[in-house]
Amino acid sequence: MVYSLCKMSQKGFNLAANFLISSPNIYGSGNFIINCRSPLHFLSVFRYLGTKSVANCNSREKLKLELGNINGLDDALSLYETMAETRPLPSVNQFNQLLSRVVNLKQYPVAIRLFKDVCRIGVSVDEYTMTIAINSYCLSRRVDYGFSVLAFFFKRCFVPDSVTFSTLLKGLFREDRITEAQELFRKIVREGLCDLDVVTYGTVIDGLCKSGNTTVAIEMFGVMEKGKCKPNIHIYTMVIDCLCKNRMIDSALKLFDEMSKKSITPNVFTYSALIHGFCDLSRWKEVKMLLKEMMDCKRYPNVVTYNTIVDALCKEGLVDEAEDVLQIMMLKNVIPDEFSYNSLMDGYCLQGRMDEARNIFDSMFSKNIAPIVQSYYILINGYCKKTMTDDAVHLFREMPNRGLKPNLVTYNSLLHGLFRGGSCSSALKLFDELQAAGLKPDFYTYCNLLDGLCSNERVEEALSLLNALENKGERLHIGYYGIIIDGLCKAKKLDAARAIFNDLPCKGLERNVVTYSIMINGCCQKGLLEEAKDILLKMERDKVLPDGVTYNCIVQGNLKSGKYDDAGKFLEEMVSKGFSPDSVTFSLLLDLLEKTEHKPTILKMIQMFAPTTLKL
Known about the structure:
The protein is built from 35 helices and 2 strands. It is mainly alpha-helical.
């Protein structure tokens, strides 16, 4: 058994030999107890020179009481210090309770260090202790180190159970190591490493659903139905939710109907998943029917159910109807939360109704609902889209005063808004601030910077930024080069744009339909129609299919240059491939229609895509 597991994750098991002594990890290395930067620095290495004897019953009861009253990390560490100095040592169960509490506080690095120290001071750890350690590593996104603790299981002659393996499986899925998670599950089944229960199956099905492997998840569900361990309500709900999110609503309904035949009663989460699916498809009649069915079955909608409906209505532009749902919630004694108000704000922002969005935001405080980072982002993004950058900046600066740290998405939105409003210097300062806050710029950050500089006629600075990214060894994306090529074309620097375009394969980047379309448009704007045609041919040779944007660019270029026959040929090809002229192409055709000498040719082009009633 040990050998097969070692084969599965050799990296993890190679760590097992010196795990307790000096296993390196993301939190430091060596003996953590004497690391001055550790949160456990106050645990003196000399504490064993004077230990406390608390064998009496009152002290034991006091310890039990303190374990139930841990309110934060300081409480946990202080209690651990007391426990570690107590002689005889408290039971392993009490140490397990303490470690579990630290994990619940999301202090995973501290839990790992405490586990090591528990082993060092001589506590006889059990399976539960080691599973807590594995869970802490998995939650820290270091599942390999979790496997090193699994090896420690066998060293202590313990047999890991389904809880332990479920924890490791969840860790692999959390790190998007889907293939390895599937391989581990197959090993568990093939070699009988533990008795499979509904938790293990649920972990795998949930991981497959969330990673987009819907087909495999459904196959796993089928295996459960045929085996000894039958799916319960939670498994059914997982699969129904997955099917709904993939717009496979008929399959979800079929599974829902099967539940009643098997005497499995749907719960509020099952109904909510189906309602979510119908909302995504704007099937409001079915939503109403499901809500009625829920009520009849005394499965009353909760805040998640109502939030799903509110969010869907807002995305459909039905914000007033969403407000009505919010009123119904309160009449039913379901209290709206921050997500309810976020959806409403987003709905108003999408319609440009910023005053109403701001009123919703301000009303949260009067209802004792503290806005979260997402709340601020929604409003800041709305202000930026309406070029109300002063309001956006003011709201952004308010966040630290509320104890909130702007996330990268919020920074990106404000960057875009500042550049769009022409405040380049403020945008560049914000970029520096972003990095100083410890956030790592992502693809969207750099796109905003490059596009913002190009849009404000600072294409040379954008080019310098791209060169700096290349020199830093950053992972470069074709999208960055598309922005620069477009910026150079608009700045009438076609030669420089062409040079970058031609050099893309040397950089290991494949030119996509967007890049080709930008270059074709650049050539058309300069009247270089033959070069534009050559690029279109090259595009097709490279098996990159032109889209509607590509065709509109080349049709517009030919129309502006008076090449009406060529424009007609490209327009005909465009329509035959299912693309339509955009508003610019259509306006050009209408303007040219006024020139009588070209009227028959232009009319013929219009008839290619006009409704049959308009055709002559």
